[in-house]
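Incident log, structure service

09:12 report received: a user says their structure output differs between two submissions of the same chain.
09:20 pulled the input from the user's history:
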Amino acid sequence: MKLYKAKRTTPYPTAQALLRSISTAFDTKSFLSSSDARKLDDSCSKQVDIHIGEFEKLKELTVISPIRNVYGDEIAARVTIFLQKVFKSYFDWISTHPLDGFSIGQANKYLEDSALLSSLVTSTFLEEDNHSQKLCAPNGVNLTILDDVEDNSLLTLFKSKEVKDRVRTWIKQAELPSFKYVASLEQHAPPNSHDEKQWNNLKWSIIATRFLLEFQPHLENARFAFDDFKNSTEDNRMQLSDNYLRLQSLINDVLHEYKQNARSPKSEKNKKIVSELLLSIKTELDNCTELEGLTYRYHQLLGKHLVLSGKLEEANFAYKKAFELSLYRAHSKDQIQAIISEALVVAAYQTKADKVFITRLKSASILFGFDLLPAKTKSENKQKLEVLASNEIEHYRYNFNNCFPAQYAYPNTAYPEYDLKVGSIVEETPQNPLDTQRKNMKVGSKAGVQRKMPPIVYAALHNDVEQVKSCLERGDSVNVTSEVGDSPLLMALSHLDRFDPLTESLDRQIFEAISLKPHSAKILNTVTTRKMNFPLMAAVCTGEPEIVHKVLSLNEDIEIDLRGGLDSESALYHALGLVKECKKPIWTIDDFLNRLQPENLHRLKPLFAGVNIDDLPVIKNERHKKILEEYLEEINKRKLKNYPTVSKMRQIARILIKKGSNVNLTHRIKGMDYTPLMLAAEMDELNLFKLMIEHEGDWKKSYTLPIYATHRNKAINCLDIAKHYRSERVVKYIQTELLC
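09:34 re-ran on a clean worker, output below:
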């Protein structure tokens, strides 16, 4: 397998190298463009870590899109799931089976002898779901189509000798079928010999068989399976030289020293002990090339030593080396995962945060399955996928002191002090915004977080009608924001939020006064840093159609599909979600707990930046459960009191649709690429669904089923969704009006 023969610098092949093998097996690598193939080849030869956005794009261009273009959404969805599962399994394997004591040659031998990757790829390809369908060979796909039998059914389809001869070379495995040639195979057969679905199944049968033949030969010669591979790696370590064992002992001594004194003041003696141990490790590494697989350990331990010494710039460089050398070698919790965790806070605590390195760390963490993408992955004027939440770097900077408390550093170490940008604002004494003529006033305590905001924003934040009116009378502009993006209009709307259980007044006076003033498009299209809120989204949450109308009329350049909120939703998608909320406003304790999924909790990070999430309350006993039940009871009372009617929320959705909101806009929710049209189908909102169809709604648009979900189809469209949720009216409408 070329995967094992290619020159590389890591024991395990990189993700992009495995992707190249898969795209070669499908013969899709250059189907769309030769430049896509070159990009994939370059990513294999010129880099080890790859940006998650670039990797996902290469997957799409060199495998998924070619298959979708020829075989449609269902097969493409199955291949997408296959790729997700293959790479998840591969990274899980690497995390639990480090090869930190192996040379590239040794790793290649063990990988090839065990057929690890061939076994992983083919077993995933043929994995059966709970509908007894093979993942990439569903019902109707024949994997024996290229069997060497005299009366092969494939040969009987064609009259041309040239085509028959080519098929015979496939059957005899003299050559593998070309993806491009197979794509138009029906052109060489008599008309009406097969219908479209039969041809699709037949052609995919050929390509699926080709794929397996590319990997299968390596299974025939395999001498042992996964467990044997694990035992073999352990046996190899037992046979390593005395140099390796001596080096490992020195590494363990440093780790013990760090652990023993982790939460206690350190002395010069502690510093000297670690310095001498690190020097001994460096000497061992310099004197023995067979130990190069442990070099990352030296840089990891050195990085921590330099942090404790206050040498943060040098520490950042050491962590870079540790990260780079541990890739595809040592992915366990104590290895690269620990390196990434420490490196993130060190890189953030530089005089100028090392955003490039932080992005590399975060991207690798997402790729390997240690972390998740933020809700918002696309930024204006940026092509690359965004892997950092809006205030994530500031959160890492805040966490530096939790990871490396100054009182536990080496003697005479002084870390730099930075102004806190994240965390809760505690105002010591309320201020009068009319007392200052300055553009901004500082809010918060000197010992904690302070934030700059214009006086009129401060007055609106505190819902002080008279102060807001006085600010307007003296000429204060409404086209201003605090340093986190809060505007007077947004603050006024937040006091009218009927879905926030903490809303008390619902007094419109400030909104009515501020909305009389001209508003710039910039103010209307500003998304706040922490809550990721913006005026149109806040207007939707008032539950008042006339307020939504008013905000939309403030400037013709308002972005109707601007995204915000913890799930990066458009105003329309959020409005539909609130229709659903109004239909079932009462939360049970199970409803609450069901929302505490990893993705939901991950998306709370921007909101809780500057807070130690480990300190957040969790349910540990019956007393905690009782407290939560009482809390939910109070929240439910407020919901019933404040929530708008379902008809009002439907009216708001209609306003946004008619204003041109994109009803096919994709939202990444629980691993699904959901659209507003899909959400309407789920809720059986027939009138809204019809209106969206009239406004270019694409009910056939599908998303790929998440790997945790089960369904016969893997490409899910509005009809599948409506059937699943028993949305009878939408099902009937699609079947009688859209399918005929």
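09:41 both user submissions now match this output. Likely a transient worker issue. Closing.
09:42 reviewer note: The first strand starts at residue 441 and ends at 444. The first helix runs from residue 2 to 5.
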